[in-house]
């Protein structure tokens, strides 16, 4: 089979203005970024108030493993298949971060015959949105240190909670000292970098509905405490306007297309293990007005991106999901059952049977939200009929539809059965039921998540976490929704607990406030907001020839 990039280059793309015209987007509401990319004005959403929303399909997955699950590939193939069965569909995805592209993934635009294109541009810089977020974030950092030097806003330099950011994996920058070299450079203090996808600015960009809303959310960001231990906000720094200027183009969703010319919005890129993990609300809302079925992907497993979408994003913005698609692979299930990573292509019914409880916990969790679930089993060449039938039988016992998806090899043709089942279950009457209420006390929210989703017996708080709770309650932030930052490799707070862990103690070590984005981050376990590169990063495989052809990007 051809590589992803070879398949992408063989595709026959339409000019993006034709895609926009097929969606009935007037020319005055989009700007071209070359022949195959356009930015659609967020203002166009106001012109579509009279239209009903289409069906919203949320794609999530079982607990991720090194074997991969293929959520993006599934989302793209499903959307293409829906179009093939004459249901107007748009897929909405997050923008890839350069950190994982140069680190492990090598790309995040789908795979095989289910890709969004042009994949080289989408994976590398794209329309500059992520760079705009980085510059906006770092302007706050620069102004903070300037104000500390000139003793403005009475900022306590030991209580600065705003780090710096860059869109690259670099473990050496996690903890640093800034302002060395004498008084002319400011006052030395501890600082650090986070990856741009972890920035609150990125979360705000994806949760904003217009420029006025953007400016308001930016103003509410808490960046430090003053010497009276009161919160210092961006509003106090008087730079919300400047930050909004830097994001004036980034706010507009990016329109591209799939390998089969299905429209796709690729916009925003927060990670789901440290933020809310889905594309921009503007892209989703715009797609809902322009199509019958919107397929949107959430990051990592259903205990991360899926939970946050149903407990935070959907209730906050009044979204009404119709279907949940849960992605699984036999290889990943065998890994959860204890099979060695190197042997996953070897048939093993025993390991598969032991790993199936991980599928079970995700199905059970998702059913609690009262939205119909369809399991998409992504097929690999090594999967045997016996293994496939075992998963099908298990899904039948769990009471959920299951479809074998071959979108990677066959594009839309490999996902027709999945599309038909999604349409079928979307006709069921359902209404989202979230796990907690925003008005619940902070500890109650976490307790409900820990016991209902993470399957813990109890929650334990460190002394630092208890101190942070007092601060959050004192300044009126307690009723904000909770985003739990935890490992993606387990439904628990311990990456070593594979499969279906339960009846353990879930530990919250601290909290971080994202008042601008509108949530509290609960830090569970040893979660990093600045990843590191692997021993052999994907960057060593990448090259470009004299004609400008890129290799090593997948």
Summarize the structure.
This protein has 554 residues and is an alpha/beta fold. It contains 19 helices and 25 strands.
General description of the model:
GO terms for molecular function: ATP binding; formate-tetrahydrofolate ligase activity. The strands form 6 sheets. Strands 1, 2, 3, 4, 5, 6, 14, 15, 16, 17, 18 and 19 form a 12-stranded mixed β-sheet that branches. A 4-stranded mixed β-sheet has the order 20-22-23-21. The protein has a 3-stranded antiparallel β-sheet with strand order 7-12-13. The longest helix is centred in the N-terminal third of the chain and has 21 residues, at 129-149. It is an alpha/beta fold. It has 3 domains: 4-128 and 250-427, P-loop containing nucleotide triphosphate hydrolases (Rossmann fold), CATH 3.40.50.300; 130-243, 2-Layer Sandwich (Domain 2, N(10)-formyltetrahydrofolate synthetase), CATH 3.30.1510.10; 442-524, Roll (Formyltetrahydrofolate synthetase, domain 3). The protein contains 19 helices and 25 strands.
